[in-house]
Amino acid sequence: xxxxxxxxxxxxxxxxxxxxxxxxxxxxxxxxxxxxxxxxxxxxxxxxxxxxxxxxxxxxxxxxxxxxxxxxxxxxxxxxxxxxxxxxxxxxxxxxxxxxxxxxxxxxxxxxxxxxxxxxxxxxxxxxxxxxxxxxxxxxxxxxxxxxxxxxxxxxxxxxxxxxxxxxxxxxxxxxxxxxxxxxxxxxxxxxxxxxxxxxxxxxxxxxxxxxxxxxxxxxxxxxxxxxxxxxxxxxxxxxxxxxxxxxxxxxxxxxxxx
Length: 259
Ligand SMILES: [Zn+2]
Fold this sequence. Notes:
This protein is of the alpha/beta class. The protein has one domain (about 1-115, about 135-215): Rossmann fold, CATH 3.40.50. It has seven helices and twelve strands. The protein has helices spanning about 20, 25-50, 85-90, 135-145, 155-165, 190-205, 230-235; strands at about 1-5, 55-60, 75-80, 95-100, 120-125, 130, 150-155, 170-180, 185, 220-225, 240, 245-250. A hairpin with a 2-residue loop joins strand 8 and strand 9. The longest helix is centred in the N-terminal third of the chain and has 23 residues, at about 25-50. The relative contact order is 0.17. The structure holds zinc ion (ZN). Zinc ion (ZN) binds near residues 8, 9, 61 and 62.
């Protein structure tokens, strides 16, 4: 069993305010990244306990600069920095994927640090007319490589969104309950790590049950931004819907992330 893990930071237990995810090397950010490494290593341990032969973890938050390399479980491999040909990496072959530390889509009621891709500039994303966030984007992208997402961790909003898109059979580990966009009722991080480790062991058993998310292509993506700046300067192939909204069709699952 070969396991691919993509991480984000906003959905980690103990993370609940923007300062932790945006202000690099502030005390708040260093703490958040430490908490992330704890969850990463819990997931890696669960994977190897569950029979994994290879675990690759991608530092997926904001330009891939959140891991503390020295702290990674020695059995795992990690991807950081500019990825270049991500497809070549994914084509190495993985039996299942895990989204660790994820958040709900923009404008989710009570969604802790909820956003879609760019928390400052993006308003909404629709995929074939259905409101979507990063969980769906990542699952569609991994689906393009026949990798099913078998587990998602984060707050209650992220877990509900994951089950909504990926089905009730996936494993979700809720590490906090959203009270507002910057507030949460949280487990002890130690408890969260225990649940994540157990969750991954269970999730590996779902790799043959959960299907990769493979919608029919082309997909229609509609991007609505918070103001007209991105639309004003956009030079790609999307149609302009209104001052803040563009729409395009994509045929490659890996194009699902942005215009
Ligand atoms: Zn993030």
